[in-house]
Structures are given as C-alpha cells and as structure tokens.
Inverse folding.
C-alpha cells in the first residue's frame, strides 16, 4: 500500500499495538488488578475493539467530546479523567442518559454544581495529587475530600467510585519506583480512611512509565495508562519500552536530499508530528526517529540512527546517517517514530495499517 | 455568545485581522510591490475574502491539499510554497486543470520528473537559500538553477515565474535588517542574471518578521508573509507587532483555581494551543498569554500579566496574577493569545468571531 501514499500518513502496526495491549492486560491480571486503559492516545473505536478482545470492559477518556465518540459502543463505563468542566453539565447530562459515565472531581465548588444539576446517574473519582503538582486534591487535605463527598451526597444519582492519581512526574524522573511508592501510600491511606463508609471504592493509577516499569503495584486496584498502546520515543528514553514497541510511524515523502550537509527534507512537520521534542546529548533537538518502511511488512529500525532535527509547519529536516543517504531517493517514503504519540495521533486524526486498512480516529474530540 | 462556549474554542477578532491585512497591503502598495499572502496561518475562505476586499488576487499555500481547499474560488493563481513532492504529481495535474497554480522547486531531479509528467499549464518559482539553511538552492549555486531551468524547459506547459526566499532565520535574530539585506542582494543578483532570458520573472520574499519590521524592501517585487494576518506572542517578542495586534485567542473554561499556588487550571492544552513555547527571562515556559474575554466586545489585555506555564494533552496551568485571581471563578472563560497562531489555528480547525459567527478553516489540509 506504500505506493498509494502521497502525503504525510500515520501508519499503525496492528501487531505491535495488540501486543502492547495484551502485555499490559496480562500484567494487570497477574496482580489481580483491572486495566481501564486511557483512550486519549489511540482515540479509535477499532483500537478499542482490540482492547475488548483481551477482556477490557471499561475505558478512560480525557474530554466529554471523546466520551461522546466512544459512547454506546458497549463500554460498561467511560471515565472522563479530566477535572469536570462545569460549563459542560447540560451536555454531560444528555450523554449520561445514554451511556454510563464517571467524572473526576478536584474541588467542592464544581462538585456542588454537578450535584445540583445532575439528572442522570453518574459516578465520580476524586483526583488526588500525591506530588505531581498538576492537578488534584493534595492527599493530606482530607478536609477538602470530605467537603467534596458531602456536596456530592446531596444528589443520590451521584456515586463515589474512588481515588485517582496520575503521577505525571514519572515522565521526568529516573525514580519511577519512588514515585510509585509515594502514590501507592497516598492511595492506600485514603482508601483505609474511607472504605468503611464507601465499601465499593477503588484506587486507580494512570501513567504509562509507572505501569510499564513497575511489576508490583501493591494494593492499588486499577491501572489506567494510555500511551502504552502506542508508546513513543519519549517512553523509550524513560525506559518504559524499546523502539520495537512503538506502534505508530508517520510516513513522509522525501522532497530533497542534501548529501553534503547530511540532510533530507521531508513533507512532515509540526502540524503532523506536533512540536514535542527531545534533546540529544549534544543539545540538538529531536522531533522523531527515522525507520525504513517496507511494503506490506513491519517497518525496520535502521542500524545507524537518523532523526528529525527540525520542523516547521510542514517541513521536517532529517539529520541523516550515511546508511540512510545511501538507501533513499527523492520521492521515496520514510517513517518517523513520534516523540509523543498522543499528540501525533491527535494531529493526524487517522491511521492506516501497514496492510492498507483504514483505522478510525475521533475528529476534534479534545 | 460567550455563554454558549463550553469547551476550548478559537476566537477571531475580525477587526484586528482585517486591520493587519490592510496595513500589510498598504505597505506593499506604498512601495509598488504586490502582496501575495500565505494562507497557511488562516486556512480560511472567509479570511481569504477579507484579503480580496483590499485587492489581493493571488495567494500562497503550503500544501497541495490546502491549494485544493482554496481552488476555484476566484484566485488568479495559488502558489504552493513547499518544495514540490513528486508523489503528488497526479493529484497536482488534476488540480492544475481547474485552477491556475504555481509550485516551488529546489532541485533538478524533481524538476525533471514534473517536466516529464505535467499535463496542465503551471508556473514555478525556484526557492533560494540566502542563509536560512532550511531549504532552497544556495543562491551562489547558479549551476543548479541552470539545471532546473534546463529541465523545466523540456515541457512548454511549465513556466518560470521567479525566485522565492523565505528567510525564516528572521524569527531568531535581532538583526532583521541584516537578513533582509542578505536576501535582497541575493534576489537582485539572481534577477539581474536571468531577466534577459525570462523578462517576466519576479522576486518574492515571505517572512512575517521582515515584512512587518522593514519599511524599505528595495528592489524586491512581491511580499508573501502569512502569520501577519493573526500575529502571535512570538511575533510580539520579535518586535513585529504588539499584543493588541494579535487577532486570535483561545477561549478556555476554568476548571480549578489554586489561590495559594497562584495557579488556575483550564481545559486547553497541547492539542488546542500546540506545544510551541517561549521562555520567560527566569527560564520558565510560556505557552500563551491570558486576556479577559468580554461579551460581544474585543478581549482585553490585563494590566498584570498571566500566562500558561505548562500544558499537557488537554490541561493548561496558568501562572496567575493577583488581578486575575481576583477577577475569575471556576466555570468562567478566559482567553489565551497563542505563542504560534499558525499551529493553534491548525489544531483547532475552526474559528468564531467575538460576535458568534462561525469562520471556516480547512480540514486536514496539511
């Protein structure tokens, strides 16, 4: 199918993606935990089906629009893992009348508003901050948790499902084990405090680095990672996976080759890959790693590395190895493994398998 | 119309946008130059109409898909300012049979291929590199230019229109005047060399910082900037414009306020703003500047600055001034002036005027 590709196209290797999903599901099962994957990375019904085939029944999304995209497809519950946006209460009520949903709460103000206006049954998790600092109730502040619970209780349609932590600082540390222990302790402490009054509550943790690297999750009940379905070059750097585990690659046409400069110009820039960037040891930028595309077969990781050293809106410039310069001509396609697959998938909004099958992606679901 | 906004929405201030277009058109006219604006920023038929109203007849785009979006709307020529991608020759031929197009060439290999396969009349510019280093024929290498021209001449449908420079290094310098002089000299030298044989050729230059800051363009014939229609915080930093000239703002709902931390959490992240970033003097990141939104009126630039200090996929965290913290509540909307408006517009793919009118944006035109 490669000969039919004329412009930047996001390829998905179904085998790699299914393997990533199976591995995480097996890891969860091994520890008696439930995997409730975050679909913000794939944003695809078909990838959702691949998850269902290994027993996944509940999913996570990051916006009401994304929940709407996934609703009425047989998911037992869709959890919207973003602090509830009170401006969306009417649209939420409408969707919650058709599909079982749960939301995330971080403050009593919003809780009160939802409790006042909620007209369909819905669950909620309280998001806890155990050290990341992005969002959530600091785990020691049980007074705020109590206020949230008191506000929620005023509406019998509203049910407390548990505590959620996204320890996003695991992306920026070498101490994933330490971050996990911090999160685990916070969740264990909170569950112990509230389980008597709310016997069905669960604890859930949601980052790909932790879920990939850790093997023992202690007493946490549920895992909610998303990026692991595709992985990316950032996750390789963290140690969550290897390059061979990355399930998506952007196919880009070569439009110019500058042999003396060791550079290749491709049609594929910031609007395709996103502007997410890593830094090489010498301080230069890396917007994605080059792979060779093979007709009807998996892409191939080169022996000599080449990578995207700069992007503008539609341009990408590859710092090319001698090997790459010898192998390619103007008009050829090469593949780029993304730095951050969630962003690249959201930019591209469509996938093709390496056998040419179209795979859906939600339109404007953010 | 603000009360109808429930999720991240890109607002456009028509008055500011029209003023930016008029100013640039007047500047071009004053010097007897032609303005051929780049539509990669706005990607909108309606903004195209606003340009037509001040006399614009020819436009620039950055991809064949974008050319297709703008075709058959009465543009005298649409120039695709990206090194021609030979995999698109069939689609190009089809579009060129309906709409007058010109393309950009940087090497003889692609020129030869196009000359062999071109079936409809089309123009071409040779892209010149006068120092930016991204793409284009280094201006001293007239042997390559001669090869391109010789290859193109084999097809009488193919006509040479001139030389194009995008001096993108003007984004990273304080010496815009120096860069302009470098580009102007290169273009003047090349025009002098080739005008006898090609008497209708023109020279065109295409960056917003230069076109905004410079007043005297010397003997350059045409201006081709794009970002100037919207401008953005990056352009303010360069000195191309003031904050009051930025024509788009992302409306985002406030979902949490942390008064003690001086932080506000909004629904609006990397998938809305893009990951383009500037650095504050203290080294912290800035993903966009906060403005106050006013019902049915222009947004208002706060006296005390607040800005987006971090983004993830859907989250934005505002470093909030005391003034901002006093003015807003959870559930309110605030506006974010983008760091890079081209990327934000491409992420959002739709605009609303401050009076609630929908303004189109091309879908997946990159």
């Amino acid at each position: 199918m490669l000969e039919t590709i004329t412009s930047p196209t996001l390829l998905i290797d179904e085998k790699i993606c299914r393997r990533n999903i199976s591995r995480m599901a097996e890891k969860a099962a091994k520890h008696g935990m439930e995997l409730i994957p975050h679909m913000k990375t794939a944003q695809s019904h078909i990838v959702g089906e691949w998850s269902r085939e290994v027993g996944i029944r509940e999913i996570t999304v990051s916006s009401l629009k994304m929940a709407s995209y996934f609703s009425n497809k047989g998911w037992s519950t869709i959890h919207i893992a973003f602090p509830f946006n009170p401006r969306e209460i009417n649209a939420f009520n409408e969707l919650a009348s058709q599909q079982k949903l749960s939301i995330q709460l971080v403050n009593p103000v919003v809780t009160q508003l939802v409790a006042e206006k909620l007209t369909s049954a819905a669950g909620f998790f309280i998001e806890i901050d155990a050290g990341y600092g992005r969002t959530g109730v600091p785990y020691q502040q049980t007074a705020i948790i109590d206020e949230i619970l008191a506000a929620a209780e005023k509406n019998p349609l509203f049910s407390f499902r548990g505590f959620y932590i996204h320890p996003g600082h695991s992306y920026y540390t070498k101490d994933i084990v330490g971050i996990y222990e911090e999160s685990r302790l916070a969740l264990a402490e909170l569950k112990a405090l509230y389980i008597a009054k709310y016997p069905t509550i669960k604890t859930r943790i949601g980052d790909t680095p932790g879920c990939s690297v850790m093997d023992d999750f202690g007493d946490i009940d549920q895992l909610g990672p998303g990026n692991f379905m595709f992985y990316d070059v950032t996750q390789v750097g963290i140690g969550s996976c290897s390059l061979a585990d990355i399930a998506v690659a952007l196919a880009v046409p070569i439009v110019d080759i500058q042999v003396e400069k060791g550079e290749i110009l491709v049609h594929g820039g910031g609007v395709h890959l996103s502007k997410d960037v890593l830094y090489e040891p010498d301080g230069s930028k890396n917007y994605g790693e080059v792979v060779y595309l093979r007709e009807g077969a998996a892409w191939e990781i080169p022996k000599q590395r080449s990578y995207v050293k700069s992007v503008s809106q539609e341009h990408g410039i590859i710092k090319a190895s001698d090997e790459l310069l010898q192998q390619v001509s103007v008009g050829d396609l090469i593949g780029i493994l993304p730095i951050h697959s969630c962003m690249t998938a959201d930019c591209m909004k469509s996938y093709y398998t390496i056998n040419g099958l179209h795979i859906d992606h939600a339109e404007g679901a953010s």
